[in-house]
């Protein structure tokens, strides 16, 4: 069973879903001058199965994903194009913005 952390942030009609693989929460990722922090204050919400997270991701207006499990699943579901993935310290990161 693959679990991820999912944090939902609502502001008006906008819904942001931030999700990360459980094992990378709190890590700092680096690529050259880029420093990416997988902060608990942003990503740590409810722990749930990745399949449950995908339901929330589909209904969000903006999505921020970090981790090989959650990003791979989003690609398989057709929500993220493989060329839109940024890899930082070997960890994939993707964003979805619905206009």
Short structural description:
The chain has 99 residues and is an alpha+beta fold.
Characteristics:
single chain, 99 residues, alpha+beta, uncharacterized conserved protein from methanopyrus kandleri fold like, 44% strand, globular
Task: Please specify the SSE layout and strand pairing.
Blueprint: E1 3-11, E2 14-21, E3 28-31, E4 34-37, H1 40-43, E5 46-49, H2 50-59, E6 62-66, H3 68-76, E7 86-88, E8 91-97
Parallel strand pairs: 2-6
Antiparallel strand pairs: 1-2, 1-5, 3-4, 6-8, 7-8
Structural commentary:
The protein has 99 residues and is an alpha+beta fold. The protein has a single domain (3-97), classed as uncharacterized conserved protein from methanopyrus kandleri fold like, CATH 3.30.1860. The protein contains three helices and eight strands. The strands form two sheets. Strands 5-1-2-6-8-7 form a six-stranded mixed β-sheet. The chain has a two-stranded antiparallel ribbon with strand order 3-4.
């Amino acid at each position: 069973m693959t679990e991820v952390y999912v944090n939902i942030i609502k502001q008006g009609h906008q819904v942001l879903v931030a999700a990360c693989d459980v094992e990378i929460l709190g890590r700092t990722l680096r690529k050259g001058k880029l420093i990416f922090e997988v902060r608990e204050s942003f990503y740590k919400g409810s722990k749930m199965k990745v399949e449950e997270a995908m339901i929330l991701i589909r209904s969000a207006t903006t999505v921020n994903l970090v981790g090989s499990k959650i990003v791979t699943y989003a690609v398989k579901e057709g929500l993220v194009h493989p060329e839109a993935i940024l890899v930082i310290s070997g960890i994939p990161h993707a964003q979805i913005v619905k206009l």
